Amino acid sequence: MKRTAEITLGIIGAVCSGIMLLFGVLLLSLNGNADFQQGLEDVAAEDPTLNPGDTDMMAAMISSGGWAFTIAALIGLILGLIAVFNIKGNKKPKLAGILYIAGAVLTGLISFGFGFLPAILYLIAGIMSLVRKPKAYTDITG
Asked: TM segments (predicted)?
């Protein structure tokens, strides 16, 4: 049985997780950047609703969001690629389905819902992997 749809969804999900990983690393790189911190302070100075002390809190939130994106993307990328290799050639479709669904849940939850695209793709691929049954062949030669 061909598993082209599951493989395609898994690869697209892995690419989306890779993009999410790059975004998380970008957020982490902004944490210690003096220019970024100065930009936050400038925005806080122009906005009368923000206190100057709020910039430290915003920088901490960006850093924690960067870690959440990075961890969620790494988990999704690793589980997705392992699932793709397991389903290729219809080797272990049940294991691949479980890995896809685990990657979907973990990616979606750890990233606070921002990783919904790879999570949805992995979830669809996981359900397809678990539900599809091979065609039964009957011997008609008697």
From this structure: 7-30, 67-87, 99-125
pTM: 0.82
Secondary structure letter of residue 91 according to DSSP:
S
Whole-angstrom Cα distance, residue 109 to residue 79? 15
CA pair distance 81, 26, nearest whole angstrom: 23
Tokens 């890779």 found at: 18
Which 3 state secondary structure label does DSSP give 48? Answer: coil
Digitized pLDDT (tens) for each residue of the chain, 142 residues in all: 688 899 999 999 999 999 999 999 998 888 777 888 888 778 777 877 777 677 778 878 888 888 999 999 999 999 999 999 999 888 889 999 999 999 999 999 999 888 999 999 999 999 999 998 766 666 677 5
